[in-house]
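Whether sequence alone determines local backbone shape is best considered at the level of individual chains. For completeness, the protein is quoted in full, as a sequence line and a line of structure tokens:
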Amino acid sequence: GIVTGVLNYDYSSCAVAIGAERVWMNLSQEGKDDLDDLREMKMINTIKLSTADQGSVQAYQISFKGQKLLKRKLTQSSQDAVNSFCFTADGQPLHVGMQDQKFFFYTSDKEYKVVSKVTETEDVSYVSSPYLPDCIRRGLRGMTSNAHRAYESAAGKSDIKDEYSEVVSLGEVRVMIGEWLPFGDNAISSLMDKLGCQDRIQGGFFSDVIDKTPQEEVLETPSGLTGVRMLEFDLLNFVNFEADIHFAEDEGIVQVENFGTHVRTDGFVLYGIKIEAIMDHGADNVSLDLLSRLLMDMQHDSTRIIDSLVSEYQRSLLDIIFYGDRFSRDKYNIIFAEMINPKMSAELYLDGKEHESEIKQVIGDAYSSHNLSDDDVLVIGKLGLLVTGRGSARYEPLCVSYLTMICRERFVKYFYARVFLMDQTLRQIRDLINHYDEDPNSVSNVRKMMGDVSRGVILLDECLLYLEESLAHCSLAGAGSDKSLQLLASILNAGVLLESLKRRVADMRKNVKGASVELVSIQKMTGVISDTQQGRMQDVLTLSASRLNDIQKHAADLQSLLMMVKTFLTGLFAFEIMDRLLGFAYVSVDPVSVAFTSNVTTLEDGVTKSAVGDYFDLIHPIVAWPGVQLVLALICWFVINKLYSDRRLMALREEHGLTRNLIIRYTFNVPINLQALQDMLMYKYVVQEDLDSDDSSTFKKLVYNEMDTLKWR
């Protein structure tokens, strides 16, 4: 609506919490201010809800009073203008969804879907110099100045799609961004070794890419490196250096980024810059609209700076705390300016109108403003501080002390939410265990979740130790006798914040310990379930083995009966053959009284009665002996059984695969080339293929016929 000109608002890029994620999106502070005004006038209703990940969400609803006002005041032209981006061309209302940190509009029937550009943040061209306040410097080495390159910013372009109005501007701006990271003595020592603090040639270029093949002679890295120039260091306490950013930007965007970076043993990290120019605005006229976009870029790039220098272990701690989205983690801004235009009393900047909306773009929702002196003004916001005046530099020690505390406080807030999310996961695991017999996959799901939770609890406990050590050795700057400094110290109240943090960390120690105890209890319950399932499986296997034994005995009985039937049928067949050959029936035959020639008839093939009679006359003397006929029949039975029946049975076994197979299994614990394996299988005749897949792994089994028998001799 803003880009198309329907709504006359300014907007800027800021991080917004959407569930467990922080998404950078274009947000209008003027629009938010109008919503607050409508709430005050009871035109809209709001409700705040808790989310499953221990966050909060606010929903809006038009009130009956607001509906009556719209019916009286809303013109058709205004309604059509709003409907142009709230409805499709055929009048279907558009709904809003989110996927992969992208918003999209869609209709109820899902046939229309278009990605919103609200998350497409805008870049501006600027030139900056590294800056660190004197209160954290220890050496005399000067910092780099890029003031002579300020003209390059005016020649650059920007991605801003809307015309912005400049209501408040600043002069001689210095920006400090702070965060707290889990550091310790060993971590800071490792960082100094990586930076080469004690080497003859210090600094160099750094990247967060991990070299997995250090033995190779070539390493390819994506575009974007960080150049480091050492300033000073203390092996036990801190290191100061300049970070020169060399990240790829869109065509036409000119960004000379050079950060001053301060890393302390207690985990406090500070990034500072001095703005030389933004677009065509010089150092004495910095627009807050442009400054808000610079701050977004500074937060992104500062994250990439420190991530390229810390260890993989520290990155894993940050992933646990920030739900795997450490690149969008929260930071706190402090902006110092020697001049502010227009120059007014502090309370006039929070007028609820355009001045406040401009300031909220850089420090978030502003909730208080103070006159530190006749010339110095302090504005406190949700995301930062704004200190203006000719004497703003003298407030730096107190502001840095407050920054160390507020960065810890924001980290503790995310830590607390993460602990409760862990507790919720443990309750889900317990529920799965209590109903494990309702889902066959429950045990595997429990084990997978248990692995993740176990690692999370261990890392949370270690991270909490870093917090406790950091607060135990924390010191704050004093205000002295200066009344302005004393007023600032009483407003910021860093000492009270320190005591509050100690109590909150002690309280979280109880939560982490409770999660550990719950984890041990669930592990025991999982062991009981595993034993129960193993017992059931053993019973099933025992029953199956008993049934297989019964089936085997039954099969052996059937085989014996089959052999008996086969032998009996073969014997009948043999006796029938002997009956035809000898001419006698095997029941009550008297060979002496048999008249062979009386029953002989002429055969079709010309065999005469006399020939048949001669045959029977020939064999009669032999078979007339007692028992000879039986012996001949038994011999015939044996021959037929061996020459025909046994061979036919073996042929049937081979035809139906009833022969015994020799199975040989080899296990090779060596790595394989998957591409070569796929190429080999392309030329094989695959007869069977099985696929077993779950959330954690995929198992594929292929069976093929090997035609080259020489390979298996």
Observations:
- Residues 585-607 have pLDDT under 50 and may be disordered.
- The longest helix spans residues 494-582.
- The chain has 16 helices and 23 strands.
